């Protein structure tokens, strides 16, 4: 996570998991995960030097070959877009349906509405759902705040590569099947 996102999750009022937004108990550390990071070896994609995962971030910041490797990847991605973006709806930023403030990511929209519009009972169209192929751009949610809490606590994109042309129920079934296989 980047620092601002991580700090948002660790606010003293409500420390939450950066992925599922479940409440964190204070002072609990994933010691087993820390140990695994300390003991797992990897190789730098730039200079091929072997090191433990715990040292990789510091190494990557100072390894010029790794920086070149990253820049080559960026150049490869930005040279030619794979798709004509004009044919695809924006599924990354959304306007607030109450006040029309713009450019919220999904989590930002949820937080904005919880903070500023939690008492607004006006029926509105969910801009996140409306941008999806299965979404109805005319459906007004009877309780938008509850809809946000239940439906948009996290983004599918965080966990899977989304196929927006697939049926939502089929995609959810695939996610559940993958999670069972990964156990």
TrEMBL record:
It is an enzyme of class 2 (transferase). Residues 44-63 form the C2HC RNF-type domain. InterPro entries: Di19_Zn-bd (IPR008598), RNF_E3_ubiq-protein_ligase (IPR051438), ZF_C2HC_RNF (IPR034734), Znf_RING/FYVE/PHD (IPR013083). It catalyses: S-ubiquitinyl-[E2 ubiquitin-conjugating enzyme]-L-cysteine + [acceptor protein]-L-lysine = [E2 ubiquitin-conjugating enzyme]-L-cysteine + N(6)-ubiquitinyl-[acceptor protein]-L-lysine. Pathway: Protein modification; protein ubiquitination. PROSITE patterns: ZF_C2HC_RNF. The keyword Ligase applies. Its EC number is 2.3.2.27. The keyword Lyase does not apply. This is RING-type E3 ubiquitin transferase. The gene is Rnf114.
């Amino acid at each position: 996570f980047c620092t601002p996102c991580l700090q948002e999750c660790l606010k003293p009022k409500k420390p939450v998991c950066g992925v599922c937004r479940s409440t964190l108990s204070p002072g609990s550390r994933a010691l087993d995960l820390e140990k695994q990071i300390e003991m797992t070896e990897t190789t730098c994609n730039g200079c091929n030097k072997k090191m433990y995962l715990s040292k990789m971030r510091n190494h990557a910041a100072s390894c010029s070959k790794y920086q070149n490797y990253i820049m080559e990847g960026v150049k490869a991605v930005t040279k030619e877009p794979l798709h004509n973006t004009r044919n695809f709806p924006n599924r990354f930023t959304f306007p607030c349906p109450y006040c029309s403030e713009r450019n919220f990511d999904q989590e930002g929209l949820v937080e904005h509405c919880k903070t500023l519009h939690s008492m607004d009972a006006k029926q509105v169209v969910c801009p996140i759902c409306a941008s999806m192929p299965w979404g109805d751009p005319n459906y007004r949610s009877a309780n938008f705040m509850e809809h946000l809490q239940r439906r948009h606590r996290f983004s599918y994109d965080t966990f899977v590569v989304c196929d927006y042309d697939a049926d939502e129920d089929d995609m959810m079934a695939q996610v559940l099947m993958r999670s069972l296989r990964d156990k």
